[in-house]
């Protein structure tokens, strides 16, 4: 359990820049002529939507990203993230463009005197991507398939990425890496004593016994690590029949990138696609089919998928409860997953691995015969 002092130091690491300060940063660091600034939601950093006066060429909307003090102490990792975003854009993925500072860098360290101490924050600027988060629409089986395919293509493409500081993505105790599910134990006190906690404790126990012992059999890769329903943007177009068809138009938030495994990326994607679904248990098969059209799973990876999806639910739900204690003013943002997440996790737990896998694997198999369920 974290002590009060630990929580306080973590709470203080989140930036608290005003809109005026954000506007001044965009102008002084990146040379923009800002017309308007609006705050954007963020977990433990700070993001601003920056509008600039119209120019002859070039974008008029940006996202100013201010990293928390802890992340700002690792400029190498943020540099790698920026270069990955640029690499993926060059490879045809719908990512932002990374803007350079007036000093021709991809980020700048800004120091602020808070009165009691001087704090340093890494500041970046990305182009703003248009589109709606997929959380806002009912996701069709075909779109789930495309998202699974996208997740696999992204990880596969990153096998070709090279950078001298790439080792910074080996994040040993990073709470959001699926490998670190056992680290949740020190946060369980935030759940109190109830069935939710019992389920999480059971998942952690199974993870130690059935996943930790098989990690060496999983294929390693770099994971985006957060392909959630707010980090994937879509745009609609009219089909020949006149109905709206959706395509992925943007991939956001590369801050949780780390070395992991192909099956981790798939499990994380399935879990987040379940959140807003009216038929959450059906989701996994469509995402799995799309993923396997690029990267088929091995038998060992397939056998771990159910538990990995449950584990990601646990990570998201426990850390949301913990973050609400630190930042109660952001409770609505943190608890987005919790609105349906506990219910979905309990449903998976009650149905059991065999029954859920049967639905997932049969659905995925139906794509092979050209009859999607």
Automatic annotation (TrEMBL):
A single GO molecular function term of this UniProt record: hydroxylysine kinase activity
The keyword Transferase is annotated on this UniProt entry: yes
Quote the EC number: 2.7.1.81
Q: Write out the annotated subcellular location.
A: Cytoplasm
Xref: Gene3D superfamilies: 3.90.1200.10, Phosphorylase Kinase, domain 1 (3.30.200.20)
Per UniProt, the keywords (alphabetical) are: Cytoplasm, Kinase, Transferase
Q: What class of enzyme is it?
A: transferase
Q: Which GO terms describe its cellular component?
A: cytoplasm
Q: Which reaction does it catalyse?
A: (5R)-5-hydroxy-L-lysine + GTP = (5R)-5-phosphooxy-L-lysine + GDP + H(+)
- Which domain of life does the UniProt lineage start with? Eukaryota
User: Domain named Aminoglycoside phosphotransferase: which ranges?
Assistant: 39-280
The keyword Transport is assigned to this record: no
Which family does the record assign? Belongs to the aminoglycoside phosphotransferase family.
Describe the task this protein carries out: Catalyzes the GTP-dependent phosphorylation of 5-hydroxy-L-lysine.
Full protein name: Hydroxylysine kinase
Q: Which organism is it from?
A: Macaca mulatta (Rhesus macaque)
Its gene is HYKK
């Amino acid at each position: 359990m974290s002590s009060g002092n630990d929580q306080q130091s973590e709470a203080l690491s989140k930036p608290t820049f005003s809109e005026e300060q954000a506007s001044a940063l965009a102008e002084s660091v990146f040379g923009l002529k800002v017309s308007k600034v609006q705050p954007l939601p963020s977990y433990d950093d700070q993001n601003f939507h920056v509008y600039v006066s119209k120019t002859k060429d070039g974008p008029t909307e940006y996202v100013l990203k201010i990293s928390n003090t802890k992340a700002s102490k690792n400029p190498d990792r943020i540099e790698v993230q920026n270069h990955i975003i640029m690499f993926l854009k060059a490879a045809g993925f719908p990512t932002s463009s990374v803007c350079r500072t007036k000093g021709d860098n991809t980020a700048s360290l800004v120091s602020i005197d808070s009165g009691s101490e001087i704090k340093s924050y890494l500041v970046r600027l990305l182009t703003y991507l248009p589109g709606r988060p997929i959380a806002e629409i009912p996701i069709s089986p075909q779109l789930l398939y495309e998202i699974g395919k996208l997740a696999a293509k992204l990880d596969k493409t990153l096998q070709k990425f090279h950078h001298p500081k790439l080792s910074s993505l080996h994040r040993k105790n990073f709470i959001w890496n699926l490998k670190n599910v056992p680290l949740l134990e020190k946060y369980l006190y935030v759940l109190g004593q109830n069935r939710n906690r019992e389920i999480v404790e059971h998942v952690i126990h199974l993870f130690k016994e059935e996943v930790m012992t098989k990690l060496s059999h999983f294929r390693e890769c770099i994971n985006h690590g957060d392909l959630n329903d707010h980090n994937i943007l879509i745009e609609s177009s009219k089909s020949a029949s006149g109905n709206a068809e959706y395509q992925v138009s943007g991939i956001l938030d590369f801050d949780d990138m780390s070395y992991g495994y192909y099956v981790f990326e798939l499990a994380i994607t399935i879990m987040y696609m379940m959140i807003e679904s009216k038929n959450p248990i059906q989701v996994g098969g469509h995402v799995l089919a799309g993923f396997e059209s690029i990267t088929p799973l091995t038998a060992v990876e397939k056998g771990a998928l159910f538990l990995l999806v449950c584990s990601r639910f646990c990570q998201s739900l426990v850390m949301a409860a913990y973050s609400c204690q630190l930042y109660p003013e952001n409770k609505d943002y943190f608890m987005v997953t919790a609105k349906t997440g506990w219910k979905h996790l309990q449903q998976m737990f009650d149905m059991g691995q065999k029954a859920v896998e049967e639905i997932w694997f049969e659905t995925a198999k139906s794509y092979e015969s050209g009859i999607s369920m």
